[in-house]
Design brief:
Elements (H helix, E strand, L loop, with lengths): L2 H15 L7 H26 L5 H15 L23 E4 L1 H4 L3 H5 L2 H7 L3 E4 L3 E2 L13 E5 L6 H13 L3 E6 L3 E3 L3 H7 L3 H4 L4 E2 L1 H8 L14 E4 L4 E4 L6 E3 L5 H16 L4 E4 L17 H17 L4 E4 L5 H6 L8 E3 L1 H13 L3 H10 L7 E5 L12 H6 L4 H12 L11 E3 L9 E3 L2 H5 L1 H7 L2 H18 L5 E5 L32 H8 L4 H18 L7 E5 L6 E8 L2 E8 L5 E2 L5 H4 L3 E4 L4 E4 L5 E2 L4 E5 L1
Parallel strand pairs: 1-2, 1-17, 2-5, 5-11, 11-12, 12-13, 13-14, 14-17
Antiparallel strand pairs: 3-4, 6-10, 7-9, 8-9, 15-16, 18-19, 19-20, 20-25, 21-24, 22-23, 22-25
Protein name: Amylosucrase
Organism: Marinomonas balearica
InterPro entries: Amylosucrase, GH, GH13_cat_dom, Glyco_hydro_b, O16G_dom_2
Amino acid sequence: MNISFEAQKTLKRITDELDLSHLKPKQKSSFINGIEQGFEPLFTQLFPLYGERYDLHFHLRTLFQAFADFSTKRRPAKIKENDPNWFKSNKNVGIAVYVDQIADDLQSLIDKVPYFKELGVNYVHLMPLYLAPEGNSDGGYAISDYRTVAPNLGTNKDLKELAAALHKNGIRMVLDFVFNHTSDEHKWAVEAQNGDQTYQDYYYLMNGHEANEYNQTVREIFPQIRRGSFTYLPKLDQHVWTTFNSFQWDLNYKNPAVFVAVVEEMLHLILNGCDVLRLDALAFVWKEKWTVCENLPKAHNLIKAFKACLDIAAPEVVFKSEAIVHPDEVNKYIGSDECTLSYNPLTMALLWESLATRKTPLLYSSMERSFSIPQDTAWINYIRCHDDIGWLWDDEVSGRIGVDGFDHRLFLNQFYTGKFEGSFAAGVPFQENPTTGDCRVCGTLASLAGVESAVESGNDLLLDHALQRVKLLNGINFSLPGIPLLYQGDDLGVLNDSSYLQDPNKKDDSRWVQRKKLTASDFSAAEDETTPQGKIAKLIRGMIQVRQENLIFAAEDFELIHLNSEHLFGFIRKSGDQRLLTIANFSEHPIFLDGPLSRYLHCEQAKDLLTNQVIHLNDLTVIEPLNVHWLVS
């Protein structure tokens, strides 16, 4: 079949059927031009999914009428800087926040815009802020209405005003696009529960026998919440697919009506002024029996179809991938036709692995295989986030350096939850599997790096080591290619918050340990440079300033360098004749170099951007404990 010919034939039929009478001549011309350019990429991805559906034409017509209607809607004023490759700039620094944890609501968050600007942030990710069930809503990731802001946070008008305030200050706004599932209180789910067959086909409803067949091959994501991936509905005598919590119903994208309906919700998110959409749980969106139902080929068709819709309706908006899966699978979602940006969970996890072991071979081996991505894309590099840490490296890679993946993960879980003798960390376990003993780890940056336990012990040396770990992690994160992303409170050095244990809606979800409500005292402590919080805040502000003042941090040429010690980690970034060498020591002992660093920088002296000192490279023979250098030629 000639897919290009079929696409053009289908487009003409659809265009002839659309009602464009409400479009002004300029709007109509722009709309027609957009769909003529964008239809074939969309049709190419939708045909493998829905080509055998008799009603595909109807759904395409509905979709393109939605595009036409969207083209007449007003959005908040856009950010002035309109470089399509903005994500390559060294000016980029992001932060992820819960609206009601860093402020009270959307209006009071506007008052935090000066703080973001002073910190140097120009990319603010707002964690889910839409209507969700009372009580436990998986941190807002169980959405009951994509078009209504949670009443305690404000209104759509408030969100648009926040977007305008951010854009006025050169800050991009990021929203979550939770498209794998809805809450069981969403109107589609309510109608399904009431027996409406149209909406029952929006989800995966099946009998117990079929559910058990699927459960034989899919993994359990929240084993402490519910075994298997289904929830029984007594009212319907059916099981519904719930990958995560029982109140989060997975959407059935085998139904093209679901695709069209969710695109319409996506367009509404864009109307609120976002510049980036984070695709939540995208690895799970396509299901097929007798598979693991993750990272399936048609999941990529689906996401590329969403991207084609985005390119038609709002080409200035980009997707960010949240694929917390095997490293080889993470990289498959990254591309100009899929996700322009992607979280970098592998490097995040292996930085913590290197801190625990004081060794870097697994970090090196994994980055050599998985760090390279297409030029027109970028990593979102982070140390901590709202979620847990999962140890996601490739066991084939670890096996080649003599590390047993299963045993090593057990060690790391024990180390970071304080069960390993001599551990500096004060993390807590998340979703421990009673069958396998596996779990993930939660905690703030400062607590996991040892600040909390050092403060409790009153040991100044341990505290110095902990603060050095914070510096080391940020020193690498801020100097890697990509956009560095802070998590709320880590810029202030906050410690774990165990108050969630007193809340019946949160006590069973240990991720709340790092979702502290930030108070005036937290910001005040960060202004006092005699406190650990103040030292961390000063450190991070200084690194951001240096990064934004030096174009070398935008260099695309990246090379890992192998040094003489398994405790050292280093890489070079190059732009023309200028070079940046980042070198770090993950151990608490000085490590002697086996030769001058001039061989990497091609000069005899360099400036350390972190200390602002000029260093004669022949004299730099030792990397001090837990130290990091940013050396420029």
